[in-house]
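FAQ: What does the model actually see?

It sees only this:
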Amino acid sequence: MKLHVTRHGQTDVRSDHPPGDPHLTDLGIRQAEYLGMALKESSFVGVIYSSPYFRTIETAQVIADVTDTVIVPAAEMREYVIRENQMDGFRGATQDELAVSYSRVQKAPDFPSPWWTTNIETDEDIEGRVQPLVDRVITDEVDVLLVGHGASTEGVHRHILRNHAPDQLDHGQRGWNCFRSTFDFRPDFRVVHIMDVSHLPDDAVTSNAMTREEWLAEHG
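And it is asked to produce this:
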């Protein structure tokens, strides 16, 4: 069983987008297509569990179209809350609304409503939130892709590496849009990729609005 992890594609905040829930840019869609093709080449035919935000569901939809797979909304992979009033005015789409708008979405019977939180979360909170999902899917027979945000995907990495490869916790990789991490759990645990972007052209590696070069120049 292989567990794949990715962050959503590049986003574009416009006035007609719901507060706190931007959609993908054209480049973000292409990033998802590149990742979908890489997963298809690696014979991925499993299930995609995606944060219910539009940017993550749209990323998952593009990948699912390429790989001919299905999407299950997973509240555990949602964005995190880091400040008071961050979620003011936010209204997340329901499962029914997502299923109407995105053809690959399948509804989960235990999906919570509302699925978002207004509570400020620490790194430990986020890792604890994603842990039950990770622990459950790694027992599946089929491969799985988790689609999330910077914080939730980092929580997934911390939980997996802490328990299976603690020497790689400080891997030093950056969570670019549509990176690919792959962890092989059968027959023995093996790290295949950590936040790899070799499937993306150099000019398609971004951290949302910033190119890789711009981000590195600003952050060193």
